[in-house]
Automatic annotation (TrEMBL):
Ranges where the record places region Disordered: 61-81, 150-200
Gene Ontology MF terms in the entry: zinc ion binding
Keywords per UniProt: Metal-binding, Zinc, Zinc-finger
Protein name per Swiss-Prot or TrEMBL: FLYWCH-type domain-containing protein
Basic and acidic residues composition bias: residue spans: 164-174
Lineage: Eukaryota, Metazoa, Ecdysozoa, Arthropoda, Hexapoda
Length: 218
């Protein structure tokens, strides 16, 4: 049958190709072993030794991998937990005033009994500073300060302090102050720069909590 003859012929050709390929591979392998020197001369050995030493030094000097995007902020702990001053924002929310910087509360943990505060310039200047304090607003105690401010503190002449009622919460103080009436008087800026502000006086009992109002500089 012609089909069987054709198939047999193709198989024979394939066998011859395989045998030739095996012989060529064996010959090439023998030639490689015959041409390879049994040992390196002094120059080649020295080059290989120096290359290995350089690679070892590069591996030793390589810094350990770190998590991408993760930064370590300078941290300062306060074992004695000093008390911090509290102020009330124009929205009636508590803030921390410390060394001319002001902080907003962004979290209050019921389990950890801690409040987390961020600098009020976080959005404007990307300030990374954070504070951890106790949770009780009436008696805030500083626990941890993290980061360094990337901006100067607010000048004392830039804001006007209003003393609040000690028996009220910051929100109640804000509502009470907006309803109470009093006399308006002009107060000179502490720096004597000619700026003035309207300070509303009240017959309310005073406390160390303060509310900040922006002023118009002349």
């Amino acid at each position: 049958m012609p089909e069987l003859d054709l198939l047999s012929s193709r198989i024979s050709n394939l066998e011859r190709i395989v045998v030739a390929l095996i012989k060529w591979t064996d010959f090439t392998w023998k030639q490689f072993h015959q041409q390879r020197p049994d040992h390196y001369d002094i120059d080649e050995a020295e080059i290989l030794r120096n290359y290995a030493q350089e690679n070892k030094q590069c591996v030793d000097l390589e810094p350990p991998p770190s998590s991408p995007g993760k930064r370590t902020l300078p941290t300062k702990h306060f074992p004695t937990r000093p008390r911090v001053d509290t102020v009330t924002s124009l929205r009636g929310k508590p803030m921390i005033s410390m060394n001319g910087f002001f902080f907003h509360c962004i979290a209050n943990g019921d389990i950890s009994k801690r409040r987390i505060w961020t600098c009020d310039q976080r959005t404007k200047t990307k300030c990374p500073v954070r504070l951890h304090s106790t949770s009780e607003v009436s008696d805030l105690r500083l626990i941890v300060e993290m980061g360094v401010h990337n901006h100067p503190p607010d000048p004392a002449a830039g804001r006007v302090r209003k003393i609040m009622n000690p028996d009220r919460s910051p929100h109640d103080n804000f509502a009470h102050s907006s309803q109470s009436s009093g006399q308006l008087q002009i107060q000179q800026s502490p720096d004597g720069g000619g700026g003035s502000a309207l300070l509303q006086s009240s017959t309310t009992t005073f406390n160390s909590s303060v509310m900040y109002y922006p002023i118009m500089q002349s």
